[in-house]
Amino acid sequence: MLNWAIHGTGFISHAMITAIAASNGSRVHTIIGRNPETLAEFQTQYAIPNTATDAAQPLADPEIDAIYIALPNHLHHTATIAASNAGKAVLCEKSLTTTMEQADALATTIRTNNTFFGVDVEPDGFPNFFGTSASAPHAAAVAALIQELANLTPSGLTQILAQSSIDL
Question: Where are the beta strands (DSSP E) in 33-147?
């Protein structure tokens, strides 16, 4: 079983949690955010076993295999680098960085650590991830989930969004 930490409590996290819950071989283990009340709501709504207000806590947890980063854009590169340095597989929403220097640092970290990395590259919000470091730990399991997400039809995505109670 692939254990995920979801970093961020915005609307897209609802869709990803629902997709992970519907996948074979994955589950959400921890939700990470700033607001304890919002974390409690996610925990109750999706039966997530753990919450964290400190992102370092799940990064140090050996039970966490992968991190989904759904933070504001300017925080993506820092969170991705921290997850890679902790040896976690990473899926991140776009945009990854705000400068080329950040992009270079992120790419160097992913390569140096040989961690799996994927990024949402579709402008319309339809899950379509591009991954690297296929030899990294958990790469096959993360890639299988990405394939499940990529194979969704627009109606399948609409169904996931409806199941997640997102008000768009």
Answer: 50-52, 66-69, 89-92, 117-120, 129-132
Residue 77: how many other CB atoms lie within 10 Å: 23
Span 28-80, pLDDT tens digits: 999 999 999 999 999 999 999 999 999 999 999 999 999 999 998 888 889 99
Cα 79 from Cα 75, distance rounded (Å):
6
Q: Which two tokens stand for residue 111?
A: 């390569």
Q: Is the dihedral of CA 77, 79, 82, 85 positive or negative?
A: negative
Query: Tokens 């990473």 label which residue?
Result: 90
Which residues, including other chains, have CB under 8 Å from residue 25's CB and lie 6 or more apart? 1, 2, 141, 144, 145
